Amino acid sequence: MANRRRRSTISRRIGRFRWDRRALGLLALFALAVAGSSWLRAHPEHNPWAPLDLRDPLGMATAGKLAALRDDPGECRAVLERSAVAYEALDPAGEGECARPDRTRLETYPLAPDTPPVTCALAAGLELWRDRSVERAAREILGSELAAIEHLGAFSCRRMYSDADAPWSEHATGNAIDIAAFVLEDGRRISVLGDWEGDDEEARFLREARAGACDIFATVLSPDYNAAHADHFHFDQGGSWTGACR
Fold this sequence. Notes:
Radius of gyration: 26 Å
Mean pLDDT: 87
Number of helices: 6
Number of domains: 2
Shape: globular
Order of helices and strands: HHHEEEHEEEHHEEE
Number of strands: 9
Structural class: alpha+beta
Distance between the termini: 80 Å
């Protein structure tokens, strides 16, 4: 009888111990959840549920949020407004494979010789790239502020590689832009064609600008890709080559 009572007491103690461990485990998980929630609120760039603001640092959730804008121009323009980016929403244009229902022109972006309308997702990427990559690299590597970014065009109703059987280019819907050079406030002009090769500060600046673009755009092509890109960077927000950086 005494042995049974002893075993019963031990069993109850073991049961309580197991319950205490489960309770402590649940409390620990709750504490971690609270701490994680607080951390995400303080770091919206890592929070996939926080609204995208282009003024936030780049984070783990930025690329996914940018990708979600490709098929949602309305939400994309809400992001531009939230981020205090001045833009103009233009009327749709074109037809067929070259229809452009989403035509967004950045109003204060330093593009030259003009500021062409592009898709809103591309516009958001350009704003983020200038602010987070190009201007910083110009100051840190070249010791000057950025004055202008020269481009070779955005919209072009054509297929890729000028091949009649090739897929349609992202340029056909204004979802791509070709960047040729950068003009600094001190008067220097850094061109992809003339300054890509070598290891001087101009070449390092261009490589930093390309590396920064790879964190933002779906496709980034440079002179390292092929001879057709010897004089420019190609950026687009298409879904077919997501993550291409060459």
